[in-house]
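JOB MANIFEST
job_type = single_chain_structure
chain_count = 1
residues = 236
[input]
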Amino acid sequence: MRIYGRRPVLEALQAGTVSEIWLARGVQGGLYREVASSGVPIRWVSRIELDTLFGTTKHQGVLAEVTERPPTASPLERAAAAGEWPLLLLLDGITDPHNLGAILRSAEALGAHGVITEEHRSAPLSPAAVKAAAGATAHLSLLRVKNLPSYIRTLQQQGVWVYGAAGEADLPVSQLDFCRPVAIAIGSEGQGLRRLVRERCDALAAIPLRGQVRSLNASVAAALMVYSCQEQRRSQ
């Protein structure tokens, strides 16, 4: 797979998954020094050639060929190794790659142990999603499952409580008990959580809104839910 953007490429270099790099002529500074010191082959091209390779001008002068990420520990294994209660994000119908990338970025930055998507109802981990994730994909446990409702049942059998974000719910997020193994389900902006996913959740909760706009972007909702969880855990 090819990825682009300075932060994603530098994170992939640190992870050791880059096999070749394309740099726009004239690129200097920290990016060039890191790339040169990595020993990865560099191909110098014009910015127009990079534009053509990806059909975008947002590559920031660098593009990389990366190998498949080696298998990582499952989110539950990562939580156990850190001595923490598991905190997972379950994404139901997030099809926009920029939304997916933004959620991955927030999840990693706020300390979630993993993000789970469904194979046929989610944006793939495309170059656009990797770019929006700003390097988070190199550090986060990512799983794609065939059936999200079935996976929720599996989590519950392992002692994980599943909370769904739903704007119409009567229960505010502040009243959820996050001091235990938790997975948070986030639905699409247009339709929210599917009925089967909602029915499998142990509780549905809303983020209280005060303005005239009655909904949040999915990536913002995910970040607020994860932040609420971490704040409650820190206060215990």
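[summary]
The first strand starts at residue 2 and ends at 4.
The longest helix spans residues 218-235.
exit_status = 0
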